[in-house]
């Protein structure tokens, strides 16, 4: 059902002709209210695509009614003309829905540096408006229209303890898939919440889920996570409850993104414990998850603790204090490294399951953090080296 | 000629039986004097192999007479027993050469986590001592005995403006080659210099050469660069002259390491200009050089400026201030990106030469820095995923 699971939302996903193939490439999500609460988190990349620049200012007041999302082009690095295209899109959708352009958020995903085919975008917006529907199929259509290199649509439905509903759709897999596979997420809820609560809950949910996918700590130019609240359930939801349910929905979507990373043969969960702080644990987890040598070893079904330990050792002391001689490493439950040296024989580790668990205990404190990434495979190289503009 | 090019040095390279193959695996370099000046720079990785721990304290007084280097095992993550092995090696070589163990530096390269076969190491040390020779062949033998995944030995000879000689040998390619391909470098000179001058000159030379190879800013557990000065030429060399000639020798060796990176099909030179500081330029260069998407694009002969710009955009504002809309990118001399957007057609870029020049102008200042790396290829994945302990 996706974004139409909660009450008060309509969705559509159609083929507007933006993509050269005939595939669906334009999605529209409308919040019918009574509330028009909105929150969004955007990429930390300083190169911000036109839609990100637009949406950032449009959602700053905590209010929005609609999101228009296109695949087939990122509209990034397209200068003032590209921004004008996004502005025009928001104005057009606003007019079609009889709402302010400032209440229309815009997301784009695809190739960098090329202008969007605006005839297709604007014409498609009208078709999408005409196709808006509150049903499950419409939600599914929208989730497919935002796909680029995804092989499956990613959707989720969660009900909060108080009975409010949360729906969501996502695309992309961090930086792993080709063309920077922008991560786009739209979460909807019929809970009654204020803009402030929605904003803080979204940020907290994103922090430990979407922000923990992949290893580069380097987002694309277009990454966007949006939350829309209609209040249509009439159920008031507190900040903690909303944050927890959003986290649950986000964690499920984030896990789906990792599982669909193109070219990957393993989903690698790096869990660092025994750190002096969460920040320290995260720095070590990212360094391990970012290591090509670690990820290539996983691809080769090799529980190479030496490379894991060496990657951890590259984190500066001031960022993550720990004694290398106190480090312990488990791979898929087998303690291959203890007190900084060899322990159980690596032949005891079964690396064949897709999910690989790498646990590193720094032995320096009580904090922990985790990162999800994928292995470095031939398919990854193949897909990311084929000519792409 | 390598390390025997300057006066006052003997070298040897033999097969001690450390490597399972019959290949040469033990090198010895002896400084006959009259000076016994020494300086060294070690890995910044906090996981330090036993030989690094030993050599760091042995060279702290600015003096050393010999270096013993083995391939076939890194002696890293081997605990107190591993350190005892290194200590024993230094004592043994010291006894053989009739010098103090504290004047013997030790380097090792190979697999992490395994103890060295000490019978072979100690027995081999005697054979190496017996093979010591001042000639060109001995220098060449030593340069071969330190090779692991290198396909060719790397040596250099430089004469300073005042006529003093510098010789050198190197192995490894940063983090690119399998098994963490430790970088080991031994530089020798017959210049008359003090320990302080040698130390500062070596650090300055290393900073803009060896430290600029590869992209991970993540060194192996064993990286070591050593400088020995015999003073045998009788030629006093000032700090600036030594630093410049050392830089020249180091740059040549560093370039050879990049060119021999296993599995690579392109040597990528990332040059960032127009930065507010060298630190800022370096941060941007490293982020670009570290990007798998950039390196995969190079492998595919694709001058993908969008990925380059996106990588630069991941550097925090406080580290490297610049306006993304002012960025310019040239690939092999063609300006594919100007003012943050598309410019010359990418089809104009000839990516077929092995050397790829990526120039990024941030338009924010006058500082610059460069990094050398390689492309991400199928061979890299293959070599780094094959089972290795």
From TrEMBL, chains A, B:
Substrate binds at residues 148, 171, 182, 262, 384, 389. The record marks 109-110 as: Involved in the stabilization of negative charge on the oxyanion by the formation of the oxyanion hole. The active site is at residue 182. It is found in: Cytoplasm. Pfam families: ArgJ. InterPro entries: Arg_biosynth_ArgJ, ArgJ-like_dom_sf, ArgJ_beta_C. The keyword Acyltransferase applies. SUPFAM superfamilies: DmpA/ArgJ-like (SSF56266). It catalyses: N(2)-acetyl-L-ornithine + L-glutamate = N-acetyl-L-glutamate + L-ornithine; L-glutamate + acetyl-CoA = N-acetyl-L-glutamate + CoA + H(+). Pathway: Amino-acid biosynthesis; L-arginine biosynthesis; N(2)-acetyl-L-ornithine from L-glutamate: step 1/4; Amino-acid biosynthesis; L-arginine biosynthesis; L-ornithine and N-acetyl-L-glutamate from L-glutamate and N(2)-acetyl-L-ornithine (cyclic): step 1/1. Its EC number is 2.3.1.35, 2.3.1.1. It is an enzyme of class 2 (transferase). The record marks 181-182 as: Cleavage. Its main location: cytoplasm. Keywords: Acyltransferase, Amino-acid biosynthesis, Arginine biosynthesis, Autocatalytic cleavage, Cytoplasm, Multifunctional enzyme, Transferase. One of its GO terms (molecular function) is L-glutamate N-acetyltransferase activity, acting on acetyl-L-ornithine as donor. Catalyzes two activities which are involved in the cyclic version of arginine biosynthesis: the synthesis of N-acetylglutamate from glutamate and acetyl-CoA as the acetyl donor, and of ornithine by transacetylation between N(2)-acetylornithine and glutamate. Heterotetramer of two alpha and two beta chains. HAMAP family: ArgJ (MF_01106). Belongs to the ArgJ family. This is Arginine biosynthesis bifunctional protein ArgJ. The gene is argJ.
